[in-house]
Every structure is written in C-alpha cells, then in structure tokens.
Design goal:
alpha/beta, 12% strand
Length: 360
Amino acid sequence: MADMTLLTRRALTTAALAGTLAPGLSFARAPKTPIVIAHRGASGLRPEHTALSYDLAIDQGCDFIEPDLVPTKDGHLIARHENEIGGTTDVGSRAEFADRKATKTIDGQSVTGWFTEDFTLAEIKTLRARERLPQLRPANTKYDGQAQLLTFDEVVAIAKAGSQRTGRTIGVYPEMKHPSYFAGIGLPVEDRLVALLKKNDLDSATAPVFVQCFEVTPLKTIRAKTKARLVLLTAGEGGPADLPNVTYSQLVSPSGLKEVALYADGLGPEKTQIVPQDATNLLPATALVKDAHAAGLVVHPWTVRAENYFLPSSLRRGDAAAADYLAQPGEVSAVFKALYAAGVDGLFSDFPGLAVAARG
C-alpha cells in the first residue's frame, strides 16, 4: 500500500441522552481477569466514536467503551479523536463551513483543518462521521455519513443501554484530549468533565469509569475534584505536553511511578513499553507491569490492532504481494496473549471481540 507512509504516528495514535448506568448490575470482577477497553468502540470495524462502533464493541463483549473528549465552542464535550475534525467528518464538503478552515498550533504541532472549538454543538450535530483511516480500513468507509457525532452524555447513555441489553456493566473510559491547549483558549475541560461525571453518577472510586490523560497537571487538577479513578497515559517516546522538561521514560521509572501513584490510580502505557517488538518479532516483556503494580497502579496498555501494518513480520499473514497486504489481518492473538501473560489489568483494542476471545 504505497500511501501507507502518509499515515503519521500522530494520526495512528493521536464523544440530550444523559443517563446513569443500569442499577443493580455489579462491577465486581475476578481480580485477575483483565478488562477489555474498546478503543473508540470497535473502531477496526466501524468509524470510531460512533454509536455504530460502540454498540458493536458492547455486543462483542467489551467491558468499557472509550470516548476521547474535546470541547465545542459552547463548551459541550464531544467524542472525537482530535479537535481537528476534517479527517473524521464530512465538514470539508460542507460549503457553509468552508470559511472555518484554519491552521493552529496544537501541543507544538501545526495542524490545518476544521476544529471543534470553532463550532457550536448544534452545528456539530449537522455533521456526519466518516472513517479516519480509509487506506487501512476501506471496508469501514461504507458506513461513512451514517452516524452523528456524540456528546459524552450520549456515550454514557450507550453504555447504560448496553448494560441493560447484555446484563453486564459496561463502563466508560473518557480521555481528556489536549487539556492544556483548551485551557489556553478559554475552554478548560476538567471542570466540565467533573460536572458530567457527577451528573451521570460516575463520581466514585467504584463507579465503572476511568479518566485518562497524557498530561500530568490536568490529572492533578481533577484529582482534587472527583473520586473517579484516574489513569496517566504514556508513550514510548516524548513526554507530556504540559511538562516540556519531563519524559515519559522518566515517569515510568520505578521512582517516577511512585510519584504517578500520588495523583493517579493507573498507568496506560503504549503497548510496546510492556511487550516490545522489532521489525520481525515480539520481544520479551519488560518489568513495567511489575514496577507499576509495586507502586499500586493498575496497568491498561494501548492499543492492540489486528492489521499487518501494526505487527512484526513474523505475525503478518496473507499475500505479501497484494496491494492491500498491510490492511489484511495478521496473527494478533499473539500480541493479546503476550500482554495478558505480562500481567496487565486490561488493554485497549480496536478489535474488542478478538481481545475477549484471546482473554478467554
């Protein structure tokens, strides 16, 4: 697939129906059973952050659905991977919004497109979702134009309905995206999210919710305002946007993890920080899970994807000469099993059904 190099690391790595989760359903789990977090829903099979994606993930057996949260101009939190929505909606084809196209600097990176903070929720609701990675997931494009964009309240309502439908408690796992950037333009997300957690009876340490973020300061801020469990996200390179002199490598050191445990309940590392891989093979697991557990943190790595593009060559399957070889599914069960064997407490996947099957 010649244009696969156009998929940047950021693009691949970088949600009125309010309701509480179904009463009477227990969130208790066997202590050693890792949770499956549907990354933006079943986003390997449906356009991400849509009811189509979330409902399929629930039906496939996930425990949590994940909405990335960004604000609108009028302060509503909606589920989108980024605040730039040209790549995930039909906004670029809408003549009435042509003059909203802009170039902005988000966490030090210049981005051109259309941004949620320039639209009211009413305007956002006129847009329709489309597949973010059409080169990699062309089958998903048949769902383009079918789904509205969702508020966080609507994602919670989907989890509530899924709990009632399946008899399992379906949790939500929201991510605060670019919170320092949004605070800088007068749209801080922390208090808005806390208010929604309280509104939806998710403001407790036993509620089926985790709040995640790649930044440290927003987690410390929200820690003082909610009892919900918090998770620091980390990557194999770089560092938090709000702390330019701190690296993720420092944060996941044994001493760094003890500091993380002062303001977070869990760690969400990039999966290769736990099970590294080179071009050919998966490599032996690191000590990160053990170190995080020693600090009192649960560990939920991101993100396991099934396509050959994301797998080492020994796990790729199909005709290597085919034009769509990198989009074909590989032997991803080996990745799931390696992470489970490393002792993770849960994991994120674009293919929750496969994650559930490997866990079983």
